[in-house]
């Protein structure tokens, strides 16, 4: 069921977005709230999205800060090796 994201979260979380579709832009909403939301925002987020959706965002979204990625990986039981924001962005340089 679609939710009016801008109406239920603080305007400062989504100041740069015009319209947000809660289903189509779920990864964006989840990552933004995990990164910048307060405890009330987190509670609201978890009422809208289930832990599987949140876990997938933590695993795949590179734009999350390492601190946020580590915190939520521990909280949701995700191995650090599966968290994209904790992986290096560049391949290992060849040995000379």
Shape: elongated
What's the overall average pLDDT, rounded?
90
| Alpha carbon gap, first and last residue | 56 Å
Taking the sheet with the most strands, its summary is: none
Q: What is the gyration radius calculated from CA atoms?
A: 15 Å
Coarse structural class: mainly alpha
Q: Which runs of at least 5 residues are low in confidence (pLDDT < 50)?
A: none
Order of helices and strands: HHHHH
User: How many helices does DSSP assign?
Assistant: 5
- Report the helical percentage: 40-55%
Q: Roughly what fraction of the amino acids lie in strands?
A: under 5%
Could you give the count of β-strands? 0
Explain what the structure shows.
This protein is mainly α and 96 residues long. Helix content is 48%, strand content 0%. It has helices at residues 5-8, 26-36, 39-48, 51-60, 66-76. It is elongated and about 55 Å long. The termini are far apart. The mean pLDDT is 90.
Which short descriptors sum up this protein?
96 residues; mainly alpha; 5 helices; single chain
In short:
By secondary structure, the protein is mainly alpha-helical.
Secondary structure elements and pairings:
Elements: H1 5-8, H2 26-36, H3 39-48, H4 51-60, H5 66-76
Helix pairs in contact: 2-4, 4-5
